[in-house]
Amino acid sequence: MTAIKKFEPTNSALLIMDYQRLILENYLSEKAAADVLAKTATLVDAARAADVKVIYVTVGFREGHPEISSKNALFSAIREKGLLVTGAPESAIHPDVSPQAGELVIIKHRIGAFSFTDLDMILKTNDIQTLIMAGLTTSGVVLSSVRQAFDLDYNLIVAADCCADADEATHSVLTNSILPQHAEVQTADELIKRMIAGTN
């Protein structure tokens, strides 16, 4: 993937995707969850300081899960267990990376951040051209959203150590071989340096 020549903080957004208690507590080991939360919290702070817009994306459903079709095998299991109802404790964004006043939270009902949401409209309204993606899981929301955003002509950066997967091998293959076909892949520390340079 060709590197983005000039990083413009004010035309960039950091997407914090699916950093919800249920996902952190059930799909990652305790150590993996602690590591990814620490990296992402640092990246979020740097993004705010650099005037990079921070936008949150979560998965959530109304009571009774009317958004879930019985034809959807993955989400049907969520409906049967009554999980991820909007406002429920397990649906909350983890407090280590929680939104500040005025920061947007997009609620989605499928895997990808752009699927049936108004995210693209909000980004274009705010003249956002570059997306930095941090999400759980790498094989879920990150992979889906990168491909959707690529088709929508955004410049893309994946913060590799701000993403994680239940299977570390899957995360490694995606960040080293698959995602670089559509996005730059960097560490949080590398991105923070670019943000600082972009504000000078």
Automatic annotation (TrEMBL):
<keyword id="KW-0378">Hydrolase</keyword>
<protein>
    <submittedName>
        <fullName>Hydrolase</fullName>
    </submittedName>
</protein>
<dbReference type="InterPro" id="IPR036380">
    <property type="entry name" value="Isochorismatase-like_sf"/>
</dbReference>
<dbReference type="GO" id="GO:0016787">
    <property type="term" value="F:hydrolase activity"/>
</dbReference>
<dbReference type="Pfam" id="PF00857">
    <property type="entry name" value="Isochorismatase"/>
</dbReference>
<dbReference type="InterPro" id="IPR000868">
    <property type="entry name" value="Isochorismatase-like_dom"/>
</dbReference>
<dbReference type="InterPro" id="IPR050272">
    <property type="entry name" value="Isochorismatase-like_hydrls"/>
</dbReference>
<feature type="domain" description="Isochorismatase-like">
    <location>
        <begin position="12"/>
        <end position="190"/>
    </location>
</feature>
